Amino acid sequence: MKRIPKKFHVRAESFLYDNEESGAFLEPGLGKTGVSLNLIKRLKREGTFKGALVIAPLRPCYLVWPKELRKWDQFKSLSYTILHGPQKDEKFTRKRDIFLMNPEGLEWLLDQLYGVPRSKWPFNVLIVDESTKFKHPRSKRSQNLKTIAKKISRKHLLTGTPAPQGLRDLFGQYLIMDGGKTFGTEKGAFEKRYFYKSGYMGKELKPLPRAAKEIKKAMEPSAITMRAEDYLELPELIINRIDIELPPKAREAYNKLEKELLLKFEEGKVTIANAGVLSSKCRQIACGGVYLDSEEREWKNLHDAKTEACFDLVEQLQGNPALLAYEFRHDLDRLEKTFGKGIPAIRSRMSMQRTKQVEDKWNRGEIPLLFGQHTSIALGLNLQESGNTLIIHTLPWSYETYYQLIRRIYRQGQQNKKVFVHILIAKKTVEEAVWKSLVENQGTHESLYAALGEHLVGEPT
Fold first, then answer.
1. Which domain holds residue 430?
2. Residue 81 and residue 49 in one domain
3. Which of 2, 218, 281, 419 is most exposed by smallest CB count within 10 Å?
4. Rounded Cα gap, residues 146 and 42, in angstroms
5. pLDDT tens track for 370-410
6. What residues contact 64, with CB distance under 8 A and at least 6 apart?
7. Residue 245 carries which DSSP code?
8. Sign of the CA dihedral 208, 210, 213, 217?
């Protein structure tokens, strides 16, 4: 097929070309991969291009970038390799236009580049796809990428959600892109300039009234932002919250656990770091099960209130395709008991080949019901060509996961006039606090901590 760029594609590509350190923050469906490939072709024609290092999650490495390169005629001249698996040492020695790699491979790459002059590197362009993976500047992956980025002049960030959990997410990404030119090199100074302490026990940082405006102004020279609804005709998005009552025995178990959590809050024994871990048990019981050990190998199923509600929803669809998202392994166990074995599922540690097969079968309309683990389907999959119904059995606390999950079917290529998202929430449980956090577009550990505190203290069971 011949790719005919739209005006906004040309505008985005030109912006990246004119600004060597810049970000293209294009919402899912706007074609940021195609824009990047056009940029690479343009640079290659000029004769100054050696190669591009593309850092992306594993699924986009295997499913998104190769698909775009094969799909469009004008990109077929570009060669690529995926630096992953046991043969990556050999693959790295071959001359290619594009080197695809997931963040976990950066330490290996640093070893390969150690002592090699920058002039001998096989790439001189860095593209960070889904750059929010580097929002924590002190993480090992961020430190590794920052070491490499310092020696590359042309660097571009790609993501549809640059600040899904709040404006603080921008600092780490920009530090890699421009080394501190926009927001400085110290995150503490950045936070002091734009945020203030708030929330339960003052554990949450909230942006100052002027922060959004000032941060946007600081980003303008180096970022282009595009929303899908401004450039595409999208269907109507309908969010349907479904409240679920816990059965008596599950309610008793839940109340007991939540009271223990409340006591720890009151005694000051809960920190931001472990609030999510402690509340996870409450979330699990709300969903219907609980892990019995820290390694999550054994679990106990407690109730089927949510899975039965899912069954009723699917029955009402009368054969129309539905994507059903879950989080915990015991969620899938109960779903399979309710719906029967043999329902296709995209889960963690699933091979890229098998994932691609399931994705293709779904888009051809051959799968009426598809189970999907949150983080396994939130990135790198296009599922908009078949169904228009998403059922969220287990609500994720991360806004980025929640947003990307919906965008798997709510994007360009969706043929239906409406997209339905049914969200199951157990009443009077921590899930209501998680929902509050997501509605406020935060979904951070800090906002979850604050919402938990307000839920426990303000609405004891």
1. 236-458
2. yes
3. 2
4. 26
5. 999 998 988 788 889 888 999 999 998 888 889 889 999 99
6. 33, 56, 380
7. P
8. negative
Tell me whether residue 2 is in a domain.
Answer: no
The span from the CA of 172 to the CA of 140, in Å, is 12
Is residue 414 classed exposed, middle or buried when 0-12, 13-18 and 19+ CB atoms within 10 A define those classes?
A: buried
- Is the separation of the CB atoms in 374 and 341 below 8 Å? no
Q: What is the pLDDT of residues 279-295, one digit of tens each?
A: 788 899 999 998 887 77
Q: Which are the contacts of 433, defined by CB distance < 8 A and separation ≥ 6?
A: 279, 448, 451, 452, 454, 455
Q: Is the pTM of this model over 0.85?
A: no
Do 178 and 256 reside in the same domain of the chain?
no
CB 27 within 8 A of CB 412: no
Question: Tell me, what DSSP letter sits at residue 152?
Answer: -
Pair of tokens at residue 373: 């683990």
**What CATH number does residue 428 fall under?**
3.40.50.300
Strands (E), 302-393: 322-326, 345-346, 369-373, 389-392
Judgement on whether residues 289 and 308 belong to the same structural domain of the protein: yes
248-262 mean pLDDT: 86
- Cβ atoms 390, 406 nearer than 8 A: yes
Pairing between strand 204-207 and 195-198? antiparallel
CB neighbours of 69 closer than 8 A, spacing ≥ 6?
37, 75, 76, 78, 80, 98
Instruction: Return the ∠ at Cα 267 (arms to 261 and 269), rounded to 5°.
Output: 70
Which of 215, 230, 245 terminates a domain? The answer is 230
In this structure, are 249 and 218 located in the same domain?
no
